[in-house]
Input
Amino acid sequence: MAEGYCVKCKAKKEIANAVEEVMKNGRKAIKGKCPTCGAVMFKIIGGKATPVPVASDVPPASPVS
Output
């Protein structure tokens, strides 16, 4: 589980019901709730999210000689 800071409790705690999501700017983050007070906790994870490569059924074109 991820550990985050609860602003309401003013303490570091494990994030309950943690879900990883991608923000608008492409960075990863973990969002969940504080196990004590139920406030929303949010932790930004370093690095950009990598896009999933799309598999195509068309083979690459061979060079013409």
